[in-house]
Amino acid sequence: MKLKLAVSLFVIFCLNQSQAKEIAITFDDSPRHATGYFDGKTRALKLIEQLKQHDVPQVAFFSVSSRLDKEGIERLKLYANAGHVIANHTHNHPNFNQLTLAQYQENFLLADEKLSTFKNYKKWFRFPYLREGDTQEKRDGMRKTLADNGYLNAYITLNNYDWHIESLFQNTIKQGIAIDMQRMSQFYVEQLIDSINYYDELAIKHLGYSPKHVLLLHEMDISALFIGDLVTELRKQGWKIIPVEDAYTDKITDYQTTRIFKFNPGRVGEIARDKGQKKNLWHHSLDEKYLEQKFNQQVLMQ
């Protein structure tokens, strides 16, 4: 009887492990402008403290090398010295749809030169705006450039408009309007959790399993303020926070769509489109007017 119970418990444990939901956290645009609620150093220290306090393993900061003034350099050093990855997000965050292949390659290589001196630098590249080339020549040209330079295409699977939530937050403060931080946190967490669960369901639909997800966030004040609340809610819903390196061991890392996406929906969206899904490749919260309406209702209570 005891043996049967032990076997049953082991089977349940194995099933739970196979169904585990895993997520890695990344921050784009560092060192992002910091002229609002926090200054740059305060933001960095708060974000590092929150990640440590909530036992978040190594995250990645995809960085823009044109922002490496004295303060920007110090901010990236703080992240690197805390054990986090510094990676390439181009020199000045261009829109690939508006540049030639040669111009974009030059931009990428300049960032490689400037960022590679940082501790914990990894040859991971995140396309700004997730735009990977609106022609076959540009798409395939950058794929070759990344391969020739030993780079990983650091795709994302979980997309959102956290950058617009930041704008709503900062603009409200500039107007002198008091913000209830508890309501702000709830709004932020709710929007991100909804989009995360949506993309996970989309992945399961088309892959048959929940992949090791990569969450796109930005290095912003609301990230520093509320990342701990987001992590707490993720764990409450059964998610395991993993290092970014682990996420890029998933088999979808090697996936390459044959389609040309003028606007890329992320790796899960690419796969869904290639599997025949034509609509709803982006979660409904990736809409500025929607977020403004929800912000007014839930945060400002208007």
Tell me about this structure.
The chain is an alpha/beta fold and 302 residues long. The protein has eleven helices and seven strands. Strands 1, 2, 3, 4, 5, 6 and 7 form a seven-stranded parallel beta sheet that branches. α2 runs parallel beside α3 (70-81), α7 crosses α8 (221-236) and α7 runs parallel beside α10 (267-274). The model is unreliable at 5-18 (pLDDT under 50).
Would you kindly provide a brief summary of this structure?
With 302 residues, the protein is α/β, with parallel strands linked by helices.
Detail the topology: elements first, then pairings.
Elements: H1 2-18, E1 21-30, H2 40-53, E2 60-63, H3 70-81, E3 85-88, H4 101-115, E4 121-125, H5 136-148, E5 152-153, H6 162-174, H7 181-207, E6 213-218, H8 221-236, E7 239-241, H9 244-247, H10 267-274, H11 288-298
Parallel strand pairs: 1-2, 1-6, 1-7, 2-3, 3-4, 4-5
Helix pairs in contact: 2-3, 2-8, 7-8, 7-10
